[in-house]
Structures are given as C-alpha cells and as structure tokens.
C-alpha cells in the first residue's frame, strides 16, 4: 500500500499553510516554491477548499490559508479529502464487491487493519506534525 502523490502533496501543502497561519493568505506560487508542482497544487487546494480545510481570498493580495487551527485538522481529514476513503481492501468499503462476501476468511482482518489505520490518522493533527510529537511507540523523524 502506498499513498499517491495527491495525498503526499496535499499533506505537504497543509503543513506549509499551518506554518504560515496568521501571516495572511499565501499565493499558489509561494506554496509551490516549497517544492510542489503549481498546476497539480491548484487541483489539490481546490479539493482541500471543498473539504473546508483551506479558504481562499481573491484579488492581488489573495491566496490560500488554513481554515481552522492546526490542532483541529488531522492527517486523516487531509488524506480523505484528496484520496477518498482509506480501505486496505475493496471489500471493506463495499462488501458486495467480493464474491465470498461474509464467508471471506480475511475480510474481518482487512476491516480491523483499515479501522486502526484510520483511527491513527484521525488521531494525528497538523499541530502534532508541526511539533514533531511522537506517534504511538515510534517517534516521528524527518528522515
């Protein structure tokens, strides 16, 4: 399982905006200078805006800024808004997609793992990332 660049770039952009909170709207170009492709970023910020995670200001001094405090936005919110629901197996999100249905020996395992991953992502806020807080038993490092 690997997140697409869509989710990775969205998280990166949100961290950038969280760091710039209180400094006014950030232009698309300014956000892109942090190493993100500008055209792709515009699409991602649109999805984040529709999810209520960023707001926009129009005009010459306009741009994007984080819609809520970093402590109120989780990694799960960001990834769901850009990647969609996180499911380790198609059958977890749609039991009708599996010919075995409820008789499947591994469906409960995929559901358990999916639930735990989603709970973990919902438990990590942007503020946690900014403060480099430990996540569970393993401390997060920037390497």
Explain this structure.
β1 and β2 (63-66) form a beta hairpin. The chain is elongated and about 60 Å long. The chain has a single domain, classed as Winged helix-like DNA-binding domain superfamily/Winged helix DNA-binding domain (Arc Repressor Mutant, subunit A, Orthogonal Bundle). Helix content is 47%, strand content 6%. The chain is built from seven helices and two strands, in the order αααββαααα. The protein is mainly alpha-helical and 143 residues long. The mean pLDDT is 86. The longest helix is centred in the last third of the chain and has 16 residues, at 107-122.
Question: What are the secondary-structure elements, in order, as H or E?
Answer: HHHEEHHHH
**Class in CATH?**
Mainly Alpha
Q: Would you identify the CATH architecture?
A: Orthogonal Bundle
Number of domains: 1
Q: Label the structural class.
A: mainly alpha
N/C terminus separation: 20 Å
Q: Poorly predicted ranges (pLDDT <50, ≥5 residues)?
A: none
Radius of gyration: 17 Å
Largest sheet features = 2 strands, antiparallel
Shape: elongated
Per CATH, the superfamily is Winged helix-like DNA-binding domain superfamily/Winged helix DNA-binding domain
Query: How much beta, percentage-wise?
Result: 5-15%
């Amino acid at each position: 399982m690997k997140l697409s660049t869509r989710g990775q770039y969205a998280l990166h952009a949100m961290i950038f905006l969280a760091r710039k909170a209180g400094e006014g709207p950030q232009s698309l170009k300014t956000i892109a200078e942090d190493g993100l492709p500008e055209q792709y970023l515009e699409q991602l910020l649109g999805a984040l805006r529709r999810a209520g995670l960023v707001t926009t200001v129009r005009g010459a001094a306009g741009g994007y800024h984080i819609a809520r405090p970093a402590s109120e936005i989780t990694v799960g919110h960001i990834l769901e808004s850009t990647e969609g629901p996180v499911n380790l197996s198609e059958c977890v999100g749609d039991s009708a997609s599996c010919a075995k249905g409820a008789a499947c020996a591994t469906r409960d395992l995929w559901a358990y793992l999916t639930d735990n991953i989603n709970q973990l992502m919902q438990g990590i806020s942007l503020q946690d990332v900014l403060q480099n807080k430990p996540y569970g038993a393993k401390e997060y490092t920037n390497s």
